[in-house]
Write the structure tokens for this entry.
Amino acid sequence: MAEPASGASRQLRRAANRVRRREIEAVLQFGIPATQDIAPTVALTRHLIEILSRTDDPHRASASAGIAQSVFEISLRRHPGPHAVACQKGCAHCCNNFVSASVPEILALAHVVRALWPSAEAPIRVRIDSVSARDFAAADRTGLTLPCPILEGGACSAYAARPLVCRGFASVSLDACIRSLDDASVAIPNTRHRIHYRTQSAMALWAALKSLGLSYASYDLHHAVRVAVAYPDAEAEWLSGRAVFAEVQMDTSRKPELETFVDQLIANAGA
Ligand code: SF4
Ligand code: SF4
């Protein structure tokens, strides 16, 4: 009697796996909807867990970031939302703010940045190296406005690899962006859709990292990129458990509800 039951459970498992595979294919192809349905985010979490579990791939961390960012872009293309943003190339006041990103995103950005300089004298290399000269106490960093070292001529020189926080930061009012640099109380009128896609993509990445026991902390992007580009093997070292970013300020401003959402994604992903 045990044999048929085990055969039936195998069939059920195979059917469930087929459904999960279709859900993953759908989120990779169509992105995240502009609704509160978390099923696509759960599917993305499962896929990122698969990617991060490929221990024979030394670039699995940066690859997972690339997938989360790609899902953000697909989602935004399909449902851009009703509001026109004021953002355009050459407008980069927001790139003077404190920006933090998870380690996979920092590593993905560092790979692109490292490929950008032909010599140690290249302007981007000089700017990134100079970040070390402006290290400051962690408590003082958040309020400071400093240009991102990746900014060149008013544009992001690694645009295709910019982290989710930059992708999701858009404004319908340039005036508010400029005023906010001197007055932290000025709210940036953002667009709901963009924030939604950014949150869902980033939380899926955090959940995948957390479920595998990897750090899902976010770090000061400017300083972290300098640390990452200084070590050609930063990704392998971080994946092996080395505290590569121990000297970089960690972003401690996360909202508790995001942590709750991460745990909800892990539970729903069955991880
Ligand atoms: S968020 Fe504001 S400062 Fe940044 S590109 Fe858009 S309008 Fe310009
Ligand atoms: S990574 Fe690019 S988009 Fe993000 S803050 Fe730096 S220059 Fe701006």
